[in-house]
User: Which sequence fits this backbone?
């Protein structure tokens, strides 16, 4: 089967190509696809901006309702009070530990913005059935987790107006411009360090943390 | 101790879970003997004629979709089961110790999921582009494939690669210390083409990119980066993306931390501020010793590692070897790699192997005559901006030990007199 190009005279072909390339690409240049309907956009337009809550939907939920939903949908992994079962993340506590040797970053100790909590629960939780909760339930869960962290009182009701005004304890400690490169290493070539001073400060040998790298997959658990 | 790490890949075939059709029990048994078995196996070596030389092999389409030789069954992605609560929000590591060249085979590309691997039907998948645009757009996969296509080779590295080594040498393995990096040839459409097609409203300075997986994974990107070199891709090393890599559509953000290269890409929204999603506030931010955190640290700094020898691939007696390794940088091209065999006192510049591509893995090698004495092997990359890979001590001096991400320190491999190799850190 000959392609359409074989059948178009060379001059006409050259003109076609020129027409296709001369025009600077702008909106609708290719014309593929469709314009989504407002309903289509609304169904997927779930994002909430952390810094000011833009995108938070209508609805509301309080701490006590959140406690009930949490017990049913979340506690199996995160623990009744957000303490975290096994290796599942802790959702509460850790305030004041960020400069410790072993810091505990949680919603309460680390997260800078409360609306982000609504956004994340709404988009990603509960882990086995994400994005299946009503906005009211997500607001209630947000209120409950903030309350577990002593950030809001027992009578707090989360909604699109209240959440952006919640002041997260760690809000002021983020720097949003990358300070790297922060190391100024030089590519020294010889006698860079006195060999006598080189010491092994740590080794993985004998630590028994490494799963096997041959044979079938390892199911190594913490000792 | 060393026996475990010295077991050759051939032994993996015998231990592997994949059943090996037609592989006799006698052969399986002999392979399990280990690396010295190579010397002892004489039934197929001259003057004997091997069994496969005296029989008929399988025909074409015996395997309509090819797979590696049964003897390579141990060359697989592996995970650290104790690291995460389950495998659905977790990571697996590429077996760098067994790979050659700069391209990662599709089945061995490292995995990172936040809600497991969705199996997306391409006929039902859509990409929506909206927000601060002139004309929102909904595209099907055939629509996307109609746009002008480009192919580019780029690495993707999870910024948590090496994250378990901030405090001390922990994992005695190249696969587990460095395997969260892989490199592929990606084919798709430039993100700039799609953004020009919808038209940017002048207030727009940021884009939010989002996946169709259960995590609805989302990140913010400066519009400038989107228009620079980002790709919306449907193919990986010549075939459709693997489900593990975002089939049928993913974003590739060259040189930036892997998390922003959203897989199963379904939505791009333009806006005038970043979104501060959970993955760019609670995660993928770097906690400093003074309690402050760095956010939007997207760049992958220059990094290199020696892939041979390594804990999984020890040395077999004194003599001439080729030290081999990989180097990469989010800044562009690798310009030089230096290798030390004495713990960083003296360095020799290694040879870079073509192609040396921007934001791609780059191979280096250096011949080395090993005298059989203990040695401390290191590699150090310099990139086209003049940035030099730091030591772990230099990194810790700036960032402490709790920042998890962006550990691009020089790796030290300790070679013992018996040829075994260990992950160590120097002071």
Assistant:
């Amino acid at each position: 089967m000959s392609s359409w190009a074989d059948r178009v005279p060379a001059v006409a072909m050259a003109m076609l190509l020129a027409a296709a390339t001369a025009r600077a690409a702008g909106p609708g240049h290719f014309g593929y696809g469709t314009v989504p309907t407002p309903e289509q956009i609304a169904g997927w337009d779930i994002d909430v901006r952390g810094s000011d809550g833009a995108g938070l939907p209508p609805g509301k939920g309080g701490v006590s309702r959140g406690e009930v939903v949490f017990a049913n949908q979340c506690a199996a992994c995160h623990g009744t009070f957000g303490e975290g079962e096994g290796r599942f993340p802790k959702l509460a506590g850790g305030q004041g530990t960020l400069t410790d040797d072993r810091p505990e970053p949680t919603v309460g100790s680390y997260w800078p913005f409360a609306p982000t909590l609504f956004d994340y629960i709404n988009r990603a939780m509960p882990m086995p059935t994400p994005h299946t909760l009503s906005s009211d339930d997500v607001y209630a869960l947000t209120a409950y987790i903030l309350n577990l962290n002593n950030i809001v009182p027992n009578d707090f009701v989360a909604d699109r107006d209240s959440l952006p005004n919640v002041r997260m304890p760690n809000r002021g400690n983020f720097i949003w411009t990358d300070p790297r490169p922060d190391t100024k290493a030089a590519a020294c070539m010889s006698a860079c360090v006195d060999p006598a001073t080189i010491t092994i400060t740590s080794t993985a040998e004998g630590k028994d943390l490494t799963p096997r790298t041959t044979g079938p997959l390892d199911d190594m658990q913490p000792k | 101790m060393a026996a475990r790490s010295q077991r050759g890949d051939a032994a993996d075939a015998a231990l592997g879970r994949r059943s090996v059709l037609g592989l006799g029990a006698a052969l399986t048994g002999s392979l399990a003997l280990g690396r010295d078995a190579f010397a002892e196996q004489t039934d197929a070596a001259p003057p004997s004629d091997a069994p496969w030389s005296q029989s008929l092999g399988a025909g074409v389409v015996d395997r309509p979709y090819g797979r590696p030789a049964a003897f390579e069954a141990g060359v697989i992605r592996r995970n650290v089961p104790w690291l995460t609560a389950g495998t659905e929000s977790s990571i697996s590591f590429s077996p760098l110790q067994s790979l050659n060249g700069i391209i990662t085979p599709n089945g061995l590309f490292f995995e990172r999921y936040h809600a497991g691997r969705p199996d997306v039907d391409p006929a039902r998948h859509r990409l929506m582009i909206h927000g601060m645009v002139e004309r929102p757009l909904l595209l099907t996969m055939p629509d996307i494939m109609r746009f002008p296509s480009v192919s580019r080779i780029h690495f993707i590295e999870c910024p948590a690669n090496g994250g378990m080594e901030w405090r001390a040498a922990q994992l005695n393995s190249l696969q587990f210390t460095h395997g969260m990096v892989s490199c592929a040839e990606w084919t798709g459409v430039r993100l700039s083409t799609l953004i020009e097609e919808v038209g940017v409203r002048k207030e727009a300075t940021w884009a939010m990119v989002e996946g169709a997986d259960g995590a609805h994974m989302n990140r913010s990107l400066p519009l400038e980066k989107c228009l620079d070199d980002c790709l919306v891709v449907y193919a990986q090393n010549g075939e459709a993306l693997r489900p593990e890599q975002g089939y049928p559509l993913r974003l590739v953000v060259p040189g930036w931390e892997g998390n922003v290269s959203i897989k199963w890409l379904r939505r791009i929204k333009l806006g005038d501020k970043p979104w501060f999603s959970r993955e760019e506030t609670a995660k993928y931010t770097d906690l400093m010793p003074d309690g402050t955190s760095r956010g939007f640290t997207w760049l992958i700094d220059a990094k290199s590692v020696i892939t041979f020898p390594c804990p999984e691939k020890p040395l077999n007696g004194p003599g001439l070897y080729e030290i081999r390794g990989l180097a990469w940088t989010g800044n562009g091209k690798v310009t030089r790699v230096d290798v030390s065999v004495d713990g960083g006192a003296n360095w020799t510049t290694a040879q870079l192997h073509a192609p040396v591509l921007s934001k791609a893995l780059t191979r280096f090698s250096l011949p080395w005559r090993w005298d059989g004495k203990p040695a401390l092997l290191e590699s150090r990359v310099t990139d086209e901006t003049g940035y030099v890979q730091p030591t772990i001590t230099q990194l810790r001096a700036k960032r402490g030990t709790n920042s998890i991400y962006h550990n691009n320190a020089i790796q030290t491999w300790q070679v013992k007199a018996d040829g075994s190799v260990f992950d160590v850190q120097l002071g």
Notes: The domain at 46-173 of chain A is CATH 1.10.760.10 (Cytochrome Bc1 Complex; Chain D, domain 2). Residues 1-8, 15-23 of chain A have pLDDT under 50 and may be disordered. The longest strand of chain A covers residues 200-203.
